[in-house]
Write the structure tokens for this entry.
Amino acid sequence: MLNEHDFVVQLRHEVISDIQLRVVDQSITRRTVLTSPITRVVHSHSPFSRMRAHWDKPRLEFAGQKLRLATTVRGGVRPPWKRVNLTADGTVHLDGMPGVRSTRRNLPLVTLARPKRSDLVMDELEVSYQGTDKPASRLDTMFARRAYRRRLFSRVMRSLAGMPLNCLPESLPVCLKPKDRAVGGLVLSDARVVRDSARKLLTLAMSTTCGASSIFYPVNFLLDATANVAVGLTPAGVNRVLAWLCERGLATGTAESPQGPLPWRWREVTVALLDDQRIHLTGSLEHPGGLTIVDSPVRMGMAQSKLLVRPELSSADNAGEELITEAVTALIRRIFCDVPADGEPRHRFVIPATDITVDAPMTGLFFYDGYLVAHYQVPLARHDTMLTIADPKPAPTIEIEPTGPSDVPGVPVTVRLTAHLRSYGAGPYDYAWWIGDPPRLRRNHGATATVRKVALTEAVSVPAVLDSPKPIAVTLKVIDLLGQVGETTTELTYPAMLAALPKTPDSPDAGHSAVPVQHSAVAPMLKLPITTAAVAVAGLLAAGGVIGTAITKYASVPASRADTVTVPGPTGDHGTPGSPGASGRPGDAGATGSAGSVGPQGSVGPTGPTGPPGPPGPPGTCPPGPPGPPGPAGPQGPTGPQGPTGQRGPTGPTGPVGPPGGGSGQST
């Protein structure tokens, strides 16, 4: 036999994804025994990488020889060097190899190998700025992806990679090698994961034999398209499970008989594979009537969603045929469909590292490639858990507040625009003001903006003044830290801009006398009282008449002051001649006319324009600075050539007499 692994659990791709989503749903509501819990909101409040994001739709796909873990991300990030919120939207994924590790209860758990931060692929994460139609710069894109990589990996992807990808039959008492000596089941000597990318199958192969081959040849047990989980056991694997049940007194039951309930218990039992439809069962069955030795073939299968087990007993065992059939059927049910049910047989599966269990109906039982294989149809759950928290979008309104208007020609009219939010989301906010025609984006990105418009300085005709001035378009886009956009628009006209202005002290309503005078400002742009004569002018214009080119408004005559220099008035009229006097004499001279009244004080003229800048001043003279410090000594020069030999000096004085010789003379 090529495959020496005793227990095999094979899963389709949709079951693997369903297991992952079941664990995610449970992790949202309570903490599981995972390494780190997951969070629905990924955020960072660091001033150097302020970001906030939601993730949704986690999925697992086959990517060649690896498994790809992907999720959809939507959020925003705020670079520290600008006051804008960038939007990041797209898919991130990482590829990893599945492996087997042990849970706290020593169950085999299939997860992706521990990933690294560099394994997270961010190429499909699109970065944009919703305040304009221009794409984000390369620097902004690099910054956003780097900020997202760090937070998404530590808060989401690493936890998703550590989630279970397999389920185990509850009746299969297997465990990996425990760290302590306590053994709670059949100790596995080998457990490995095999991927079949073509069929999208994931197979967990386990063995309790120390000499098992390290190579598992992929076998497709899921021949039925309606089944999504297959459990296969070799005869050796079935015998190990039966021996474990007999040792712990779990191979017991009760059979109904005319005499009443008959308890039974298997002392020992083994099976062997005969052909494609039968096994040979040998064992000792203990019951109230004694001990029965069973040694007969057993035919097994499924028919009309019912498990059929028929021992082929000899004539010597006919007396206890019902008891033996009941005991053999209970053994097979205990291994392959242990959920008590009156209808179709069902089996319970557990997801390691969690307390999640799933009951699946059994759809087939057959022999294939040396394995006793059972088919199951695990129900796929509806995952209604909301992974994304619904943060409200910004709902801005604009408050218009005139702050610096003037009725003097040439002076700008200033209006402050303030944004207010009716609903608050994830701050800080980015205020993108588009003002003007063509609209231009303001650079401050704050909650307020100022509009300044200069009034006309020339006298214009009445028809031109009565035309409505072109409004100023204002569009506000408020972007929160999640990249959500709230937008509102408005238009500014001069009557609307000046509607909230207080009345000037020069108006007739303030108690001053009004005299119509000629003025060059544009009347409709200033909220001032209009005389009856102006209304008459408008009526004549509507009738087709033409009267002048000047616009009038009220001008105030302030009270005289002692320190005010006034202008002399005009000369009064001549008096009337006197009546003829008596006796033909001329009459008295006429009385002198009264002096003319003082004329009104002239209004203050507008501020003159700023004069041109004066000529540059002469260059300044500075005294010379102190002398600098002496420079460092230069390097030592090379040795010069050898000079010529000098002249011979004079003869020196005679030296002293030397000491006597040391030799002794010999006389002759």
The two ends are 133 Å apart (CA to CA). The CA atoms of residues 539 and 545 lie 9 Å apart.
